[in-house]
Specification:
Distance between the termini: 118 Å
GO cellular component, one term: membrane
Organism: Ensete ventricosum
Shape: globular
Protein name: Protein kinase domain-containing protein
Helix content: 10-25%
Low-confidence stretches: 13-22, 625-643, 671-709, 711-722, 834-865
Number of strands: 48
Keywords: Leucine-rich repeat, Membrane, Repeat, Signal, Transmembrane, Transmembrane helix
InterPro entries: Kinase-like_dom_sf, Leu-rich_rpt, Leu-rich_rpt_typical-subtyp, LRR_dom_sf, LRR_N_plant-typ, LRR_R13L4/SHOC2-like, Prot_kinase_dom, Ser-Thr/Tyr_kinase_cat_dom
Structural class: alpha/beta
Mean pLDDT: 83
Length: 865
C-alpha cells in the first residue's frame, strides 16, 4: 500500500514538473516571438495577432505551428508577410524549431550565424529577401538540414565550400545572389541531393565534372549571369534521375555532348543563349520524356535529326537564331503535344509541314527569317488555341487560309515580306483578341475588309498592309478600330475619299496612306486624332485646300502631303505648331506666301518645290498682284539695293562676332592654366577635355529648341559614342546623331522604368530591351501587363500604359517618326481621356467643329521664331 502511494506521488510530481517546465518553455517562446516581432516593420499588420491577449496561446498565432503533444514551437513560416527590418537573434530561443521560413519579404542585414544553434532545424528558407554579406559558415553545424534556400538575396563572396559538409541535404538553392569564383568540385559529394541551383550569380571557371556524381539529382540550374569556361561536361549524362537541366545564358561553348541522350527522365532541357556549335546530336531523340527543349541563340549547324520524331511528349521546341539548314521535317507537324514552335532566323528551306496544327494544341508558331516556300498549312488553328503566327521574311505564296478568319484565339499575325496572294480572309479584322496584323510586302488583292457592325478587338493596335495590290475605297467601318495606333496602307491602289470616320481613331499615332489613289479633300476630322505624330498622304490624288484644323494636332511632328493636287494657301496656323520637325508640301498647286515663322523657319525649299504659285522664304519673291484700284505692288520682295545692304551688314556682324570669339577663346585658354577642369568619368574613355571642346562646332550641336539641327556628320562621333543599349539605331549606319537620337535614349530610360530591367544583358545575345519589349507586347500598349515591373503594384495601369506608349514612340526605328523632347514632355503630362463610345461619336462630331470655330488660333511661340 505504501509502495503504491509512493508511485502515485512520484507520478504526480513528474506531471507537475513537466507542467512547470512546459509553462516556462512556453513563456520563453512567447518572449522570443514578441522580440522577433519588435525587430521588424509590419505595414500589412500580418503579425497583429501576436500578443499576449490573443486567445488560444502563441501556437494559434499566424505562421506559428506547435508540436501537438509537447506544445513546443516546431515551425515558423513568415512567407510573404511583407516584413522589413532584420531577423532577430531571438529566433534561436525557439529551440525545438524544425522549419524556419521568412521567404518573400524585405528582410536585410547579414544572415545570423547564431542560427546554427537551432540544431533540430530541417528546413531553412530565407529566399527573396535583401540579406547581404557572406555566407555564414556556422550554418554547416546544422547536420540535420534537408533544405537550404537562400535564393534571390545580395550575398557575396565565393560559393561556400562548407555546405558540402551537410550530409543530409536534399535541396540547395544559392542562385540569384552575387557569389563569385568557381563551383567547388566538392559539390559533387552529396549522396542525397535532389535539387541544386547556383544560377544567377557571377560564377566562372569550368563546370566541374564531379557534378556527374550526384546520382539522385533531379533538378540542376547553372545558367543566367554566370560565365563559365568550356562546354558541358559529358559526365552530366550520368545524372539518370535528372528531370530539369537549365544551363541557359552562361557562356558555354563547344558541342552538345551526345551523353545527354542518356537522361531518360529529362523533361526540360534549356541550353539557349550560349556559344554552342556543331550539329544537333541524334542521341537527343532518346529523351522520350522531354517536354521543353530550347537550344536557341547558339551557333548550331546542320539539320533537324530524324530521331526527333520520337519526342512524342514535346510541347516546346525552340531552335531560333542558329545556323540550321535543310527542310523542316514533316514529323514536326505530327508531334501530338506540340504547343510552341519557334525556328526563326535560320536557313530552313522547303515548305512548312502540311499537318502542322492538326494536333489541335498549337499556340505559338514563329518561322520568320528563313527561306521557306510553299503555302501556309490549312489547319494551323484547328484547336482554336493558336495565339501567335509569325512567318515574315520568307518566300511563301498562295492565299491566306480562310480558317484564320475564324481563329478566335489569335492575337498576333505577322506574315509580311512574302508572296502571299488572294484577298484578306473574312473575319480576320474582327477576331476578338487580335492585337497586331502585319501583311505588308505581299501580293494581296481585293479591298480593305468591311467589318460592318462587328465588335472589334480593343487591343488591335497595328495594321500594316503596305506594298500590296489592295484596291477600292476604305469602308466607314474603319472608324470602329478604336484601339488602332498604327495604320499603314501605303503603296497600294486604294481609291475614293478618305472617310471622315478616321477621326474616331483616338489612339492613332502613325498614319501612312502614301502611294495610293485617294481623291477628294483631306477630311478635317483627321485633326481629332490627337495622338498622331506621323501623317503621310503623299502621292495620291487629293484636292482642295489644306484644312486649318491640322494645327489642332499638338504632337504631330511629320506631315507629308506632297505630290497631290492640293490648292490654296498654306494656313498660317500650321506654322504655330511647335511639334513639327518635318513637312513636305511639294508638287501640288499651292499658292500664296509660305509662313516664315515658327517651325517653318527651319524648313528649306525642298519642302515646297513644285508649287509655282508659292513664294516666300527660300522660294524667291512673290509674283506682283493687282489691287482693286488698279495699282500693283510686290509681295514679300526687297529692292536689290536693300538686299545688298542687308548682306553687307550681316557680313560685318559675322566678322565682328568671329573676332570676339577668338579673343574670348584666347582668354579662356590662359585661364585654363590656372583652373583645370576635373571630370569624373563613369567609364574609361580615350578622349580628353580638349577633344570634346574641339568638337563643339555648329554642325555637331544638337537639341536646339523644338527642331534641332542635323547638318552633316559629326567629326567626333566616330570616337565618342553613347552607352550600349541607349544608342539610336541610325548611328550604326550613319555615324550621325540629332535631337531624335536623344529621344531614343530617353525612350530606353522610360522602358527601364516600366520594366525594371537593364537595357542589355537580360534578354539574350544581341537582344536589347527595345527588341524584347516589342516582341513581348507586339508594340501594343495593352501588352504592357506582360512586362511591367512587379514592384509597381500600386501604380495605376492606365498611367503605366501611357508611359509605355510614350516610350514606344521614342524608340521608333526611324528617327523621323520619333517625337521631339518637347512633345514627349507634353504627351507625358497629358494623360489621354478614355476613348469615346460609339454612341457618343455623332454628337461629339457635330459639337467639335463648332468649338474649333469659336476658339481663336493660339498665338505663335516666340521661342520658336
Amino acid at each position: 500500500m505504501a509502495s503504491l502511494y509512493c508511485r502515485r506521488h512520484h507520478q504526480l510530481l513528474l506531471i507537475f514538473l513537466l507542467h512547470v517546465i512546459g509553462s516556462l518553455a512556453a513563456a520563453e517562446e512567447v518572449d522570443a516571438l514578441l522580440a522577433l516581432k519588435a525587430a521588424v516593420t509590419d505595414p500589412s499588420d500580418a503579425l497583429s495577432e501576436w500578443n499576449n491577449s490573443a486567445s488560444g496561446g502563441h501556437c494559434s498565432w499566424p505562421g506559428v505551428a506547435c508540436d501537438p503533444l509537447r506544445g513546443f514551437v516546431v515551425s515558423l513560416d513568415l512567407t510573404g508577410f511583407n516584413l522589413s527590418g532584420t531577423l532577430s537573434l531571438a529566433v534561436v530561443r525557439l529551440r525545438y524549431l524544425l522549419n524556419l521560413s521568412a521567404a518573400s519579404n524585405s528582410l536585410s542585414g547579414p544572415i545570423p550565424a547564431e542560427l546554427s544553434r537551432l540544431t533540430n532545424l530541417r528546413h531553412l528558407n530565407l529566399s527573396n529577401n535583401l540579406f547581404n554579406g557572406s555566407f555564414p559558415s556556422a550554418i554547416v553545424r546544422l547536420k540535420n538540414l534537408l533544405v537550404l534556400d537562400l535564393y534571390n538575396n545580395n550575398l557575396t563572396g565565393p560559393l561556400p565550400v562548407e555546405v558540402s559538409e551537410l550530409p543530409n541535404l536534399r535541396h540547395l538553392h544559392l542562385g540569384g545572389n552575387f557569389f563569385s569564383g568557381v563551383i567547388p568540385p566538392v559539390f559533387g559529394r552529396w549522396e542525397f541531393l535532389e535539387y541544386l541551383a547556383v544560377s544567377g550569380n557571377e560564377l566562372g571557371g569550368p563546370i566541374p565534372p564531379e557534378l556527374g556524381n550526384l546520382t539522385r539529382l533531379r533538378q540542376l540550374y547553372l545558367g543566367y549571369f554566370n560565365n563559365f569556361e568550356g562546354g558541358i561536361p559529358p559526365e552530366i549524362g550520368r545524372l539518370s534521375e535528372l528531370v530539369r537541366l537549365d544551363m541557359a545564358n552562361c557562356g558555354l561553348t563547344g558541342e552538345i555532348p551526345p551523353e545527354l541522350g542518356n537522361l531518360q527522365n529529362l523533361d526540360t532541357l534549356f541550353l539557349q543563349v550560349n556559344g554552342l556549335f556543331g550539329s544537333l546530336p541524334a542521341e537527343l531523340g532518346r529523351l522520350r520524356s522531354l517536354k521543353s527543349m530550347d537550344l536557341s541563340n547558339n551557333a548550331l549547324t546542320g539539320e533537324i535529326p530524324s530521331s526527333f520524331a520520337d519526342l512524342q511528349n514535346l510541347t516546346l521546341l525552340n531552335l531560333f537564331r542558329n545556323k540550321l539548314h535543310g527542310s523542316i521535317p514533316e514529323f514536326v507537324g505530327d508531334l501530338p503535344a506540340l504547343e510552341v514552335l519557334q525556328l526563326w532566323e535560320n536557313n530552313f528551306t522547303g515548305g512548312i509541314p502540311r499537318r502542322l496544327g492538326q494536333s489541335g494544341r498549337l499556340q505559338i508558331v514563329d518561322l520568320s527569317s528563313n527561306k521557306l516556300t510553299g503555302t501556309l498549312p490549312p489547319d494551323l488553328c484547328l484547336g482554336n488555341k493558336l495565339q501567335t503566327l509569325i512567318a515574315l521574311g520568307n518566300f511563301l505564296f498562295g492565299p491566306i487560309p480562310e480558317t484564320l478568319g475564324r481563329c478566335e484565339s489569335l492575337t498576333r499575325i505577322r506574315m509580311g515580306e512574302n508572296y502571299l496572294n488572294g484577298s484578306i480572309p473574312d473575319g480576320l479584322f474582327s477576331l476578338p483578341k487580335l492585337s497586331q496584323l502585319e501583311l505588308q510586302v505581299n501580293l494581296l488583292t481585293g479591298g480593305f475588309p468591311d467589318t460592318g457592325a462587328a465588335t472589334i478587338s480593343p487591343d488591335l493596335g497595328q495594321i500594316s498592309l503596305s506594298n500590296n495590290r489592295l484596291s477600292g475605297p476604305l469602308p466607314p467601318s474603319i472608324g470602329n478600330l478604336a484601339g488602332l495606333q498604327k495604320l499603314l496602307l501605303n503603296q497600294n491602289q486604294f481609291s475614293g475619299r478618305i472617310p471622315p470616320e478616321m477621326g474616331r481613331l483616338q489612339q492613332l499615332s502613325k498614319l501612312d496612306f502614301s502611294g495610293n489613289r485617294f481623291s477628294g479633300k483631306i477630311p478635317p476630322e483627321i485633326s481629332r486624332c490627337k495622338l498622331l505624330t506621323f501623317v503621310d498622304l503623299s502621292r495620291n490624288e487629293l484636292s482642295g485646300e489644306l484644312p486649318p484644323e491640322i494645327a489642332g494636332m499638338r504632337i504631330l511632328n511629320y506631315l507629308n502631303l506632297s505630290r497631290n493636287q492640293l490648292e490654296g494657301s498654306v494656313p498660317a496656323s500650321i506654322a504655330t505648331m511647335q511639334s513639327l520637325t518635318a513637312v513636305d508640301f511639294s508638287y501640288n498647286n499651292l499658292s500664296g506666301l509660305v509662313p516664315g515663322t515658327g517651325q517653318f523657319s527651319y524648313f528649306n525649299a525642298s519642302s515646297f518645290v513644285g508649287n509655282p504659285e508659292l513664294c516666300g522664304p527660300y522660294l524667291g519673291p512673290c509674283i506682283s498682284a493687282t489691287n482693286g484700284d488698279g495699282s500693283t505692288h510686290a509681295r514679300g520682295s526687297l529692292p536689290a539695293s536693300s538686299k545688298l545692304l542687308l548682306v553687307i551688314g550681316l557680313l560685318i556682324c559675322s566678322v565682328a562676332f568671329a573676332m570676339a570669339a577668338i579673343i574670348k577663346a584666347r582668354s579662356l585658354k590662359k585661364a585654363s592654366d590656372a583652373r583645370a577642369w576635373k571630370l569624373t568619368a563613369f567609364q574609361r574613355l580615350d578622349f580628353t577635355c580638349d577633344d570634346v571642346l574641339d568638337c563643339l562646332k555648329e554642325e555637331n550641336m544638337i537639341g536646339k529648341g523644338g527642331a534641332g539641327i542635323d547638318s552633316g556628320t559629326s567629326e567626333c562621333m566616330s570616337a565618342i559614342a553613347g552607352s550600349y543599349g541607349y544608342i539610336a539605331p541610325e548611328y550604326a549606319y550613319t555615324l550621325k546623331v540629332d535631337e531624335k537620337s536623344d529621344v531614343y535614349s530617353f525612350g530606353v530610360v522610360l522602358l527601364e522604368l516600366v520594366t525594371g530591367r537593364k537595357p542589355v544583358g537580360e534578354f539574350g545575345e544581341g537582344v536589347d530591351i527595345v527588341q524584347w519589349v516589342k516582341r513581348m507586347t507586339g508594340c501594343n500598349k495593352e501588352g504592357v501587363i506582360e512586362i511591367v515591373d512587379p514592384r509597381l503594384p500600386t501604380v495605376p495601369l492606365d498611367e503605366v500604359m501611357h508611359v509605355f506608349y510614350v516610350a514606344m514612340l521614342c524608340v521608333e526605328e526611324q528617327s523621323v517618326e520619333r517625337p521631339t523632347m518637347r512633345e514627349v514632355v507634353q504627351i507625358l503630362t497629358d494623360l489621354p481621356n478614355p476613348a469615346r463610345k460609339q454612341g457618343e461619336d455623332r454628337e461629339s462630331a457635330t459639337k467639335e467643329p463648332q468649338q474649333a470655330a469659336e476658339k481663336p488660333p493660339p498665338p505663335p511661340d516666340l521661342l520658336s521664331i
